[in-house]
Amino acid sequence: MKGEILKMLSRAEGYTSGEHISEQLGISRTGVWKHIQSLREEGYTIVSVRKKGYRLEHSGTGFSAHAVSSKLRTEGIHIEHHEKIPSTQTRAQRLAQGGARGWTVVTADEQTGGRGRRGRPWSTKKGTALAASIILRLDKLPQEAAAITPTAAVIINDVLQRYGVDTRIKWPNDILAEGRKVCGILTEMHAEMDELHYLIIGIGVNVNETDFPEEIKPTAVSLRHLTGQEWDRSALLAALLDELKKRLPEFEENGFTPFREDWLRYSTVINKEITIHQRHQSWKGRAVDIREDGRLIVETETGQKEVISGDISI
Ligand code: BT5
């Protein structure tokens, strides 16, 4: 109910009368007032004026389950928001193990142990970053699921471009702008040989950061830095979730194929001489294509190689 009230207020141009809310939602005027009080306690600034009604002050920075839910256009997404948590990814794993349904999304305003691939740290400072982990239960085989990373990258890249940011995809899981990392994606899965139980897509976006920890300063960038304006994280997350919800059924049906052309167009590595850094070795080649299963095809002096994992420098 609170979410419904928030939705009405955030869509309204000016004031919305208590009477109107009570009629629309079929609750008493006192009920409306109680929900408004509770929203205020959660940190929303809601102005009330006699004979006019209620108006939501848009702070632009509020990030909460209600703020995201009220901006979603798609049904069936459940948000669990935390002010501070070690990692949304770990929390989502636990929820999925406990049977949480697909499209349960864990978000946080601050992560104290955010992680990237192979245990690397992911910095998520309080009040500025977007961190979300989405539980997906897809009708796919485990070996087909790996291509969700480049698929999600295409969808996220599309949303950011729609906001006017000139982003590119760097294999396997980075979104770059001006050559620096604005978003990282971490896909984890729980599966048996022939059965995928669930996937968790972790998305970290640098949104309103004006500064970064020393070690990532040269390689990280935020949307605020790129556009010169403060972003509404809940609106951005709602847009990302809506687009993923809309387009992932296409992945479930036809795999990476429908996204491949866009990926090739957005890629920073295709037709470039690259160095691939893997656990025990680094080697050079020319990236020429991406396979339907997300593997990168690299031409070397000794022939073509398929790369499943690693990091690339250009
Ligand atoms: C990634 O790993 O890029 C995946 C990041 C996924 C983060 C999300 S946030 C929500 C969810 N919860 C989590 O705990 N994780 C997910 P990788 O490709 O391994 O990159 C990690 C490297 O990126 C680090 O070693 C740093 O060099 C760099 N890095 C760390 N924080 C960064 C940031 N905020 N912006 C840009 N680069 C960063």
Automatic annotation (TrEMBL):
Gene3D superfamilies: 2.30.30.100, Bira Bifunctional Protein, Domain 2 (3.30.930.10), Winged helix-like DNA-binding domain superfamily/Winged helix DNA-binding domain (1.10.10.10). The keyword Membrane does not apply. It is an enzyme of class 6 (ligase). Keywords: ATP-binding, Biotin, DNA-binding, Ligase, Nucleotide-binding, Repressor, Transcription, Transcription regulation. Transmembrane segments: none annotated. It catalyses: biotin + L-lysyl-[protein] + ATP = N(6)-biotinyl-L-lysyl-[protein] + AMP + diphosphate + H(+). GO terms for cellular component: cytoplasm. Residues 80-252 form the BPL/LPL catalytic domain. Its EC number is 6.3.4.15. Biotin binds at Q111, R115, G116, R117, K181. NCBIfam families: birA_ligase. PANTHER family: BIOTIN PROTEIN LIGASE, BIOTIN--PROTEIN LIGASE. Acts both as a biotin--[acetyl-CoA-carboxylase] ligase and a repressor. This is Bifunctional ligase/repressor BirA. It comes from Alkalicoccus urumqiensis.
